[in-house]
């Protein structure tokens, strides 16, 4: 879509002073999908030269905000980490055309803060931390699960830029389990739940997203039983936190999220519960 209110596009490397009507331009798949009458200038991040995916010396993984879904998918297919399958599972949750895959970015998906954003699901589940840069050059870090505060709402100041997301070594060395539901075969995610079992201390994290207006990450020092998991999720996610749109009613989303959470608990803990009498 033509944005006929935009009067100028600047290379973001020029560090021009931020002004009202500015917006960061990553892949542009959202910006150019609908009218943006409040915008007057775009600051293009495409030439920043950030390495899309970088494995750090401490074993963590850094995803640049400008990393495209296609780049992340290619990396995930050759990555040897135990959590590698989760990358492709979340990339496929886009159900988007190859054109979107080659333009949409990790950072754009996070900053749009839409409930069904699969990069939010991926990075929140793996306990990712965002690196944010303010207009004065100062930096701050915030967990992905805290960056998204509601449907389309995020903890970003005016002009603040998402530089990267770092996934800790412990998380990417963990066993993972993935569940997703949509009302339609090629529909937007109505519920997406991810489990992460820490190989060191046996702790379990269960992240509920898509079904809710923001991601909810539940961490248990030891895998909980069925009732504890159910009650914890139900007590934390309020009635207004379940998302409601044409892709699913809140009651259905809640049902699927709780069902998936239990399936994931059983899948990831069955090896450590030989006498539980349950099958995955």
TrEMBL record:
It holds the Pfam family FAD_binding_5. PROSITE patterns: FAD_PCMH (PS51387). It comes from the Bacteria. SUPFAM superfamilies: FAD-binding/transporter-associated domain-like (SSF56176). This is FAD binding domain-containing protein. The lineage of its organism: Bacteria, Bacillati, Actinomycetota, Actinomycetes, Kitasatosporales. InterPro entries: Diverse_Substr_Oxidored, FAD-bd_PCMH, FAD-bd_PCMH-like_sf, FAD-bd_PCMH_sub2, Mopterin_DH_FAD-bd. Residues 1-172 form the FAD-binding PCMH-type domain.
């Amino acid at each position: 879509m033509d944005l006929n209110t935009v009067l100028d596009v600047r290379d973001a490397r020029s560090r021009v002073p931020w002004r009202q009507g500015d917006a960061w331009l990553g892949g542009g798949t959202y910006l150019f999908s609908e009218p943006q009458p409040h915008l007057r200038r775009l600051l293009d991040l495409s030439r920043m030269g950030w390495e899309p995916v970088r494995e750090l010396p401490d074993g963590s993984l850094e995803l640049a905000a400008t990393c495209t879904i296609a780049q992340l998918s290619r990396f995930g297919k050759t990555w040897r980490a135990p959590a590698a399958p989760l990358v492709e599972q979340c990339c496929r949750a886009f159900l988007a055309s190859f054109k979107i895959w080659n333009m949409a970015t990790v950072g754009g998906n996070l900053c749009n803060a839409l409930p069904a954003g699969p990069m939010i699901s991926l990075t929140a589940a793996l306990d990712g931390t965002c690196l944010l840069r303010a207009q004065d050059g100062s930096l701050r870090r915030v967990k992905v699960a805290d960056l998204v505060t509601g449907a389309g709402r995020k903890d970003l100041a005016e002009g603040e830029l998402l530089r990267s997301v770092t996934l800790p070594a412990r998380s990417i060395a963990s066993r993972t389990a993935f569940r997703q539901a949509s009302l339609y075969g090629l529909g937007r995610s109505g519920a997406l739940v991810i489990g992460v079992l820490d190989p060191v201390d046996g702790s379990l994290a269960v992240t509920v997203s898509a079904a809710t207006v923001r991601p909810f990450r539940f961490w248990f020092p030891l895998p909980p039983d069925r009732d504890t998991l159910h009650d914890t999720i139900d007590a934390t996610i309020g009635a207004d936190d379940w998302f409601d749109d044409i892709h699913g009613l809140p009651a259905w989303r809640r049902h699927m999220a709780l069902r998936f959470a239990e399936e994931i608990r059983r899948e990831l803990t069955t090896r450590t519960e030989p006498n539980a009498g349950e099958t995955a």
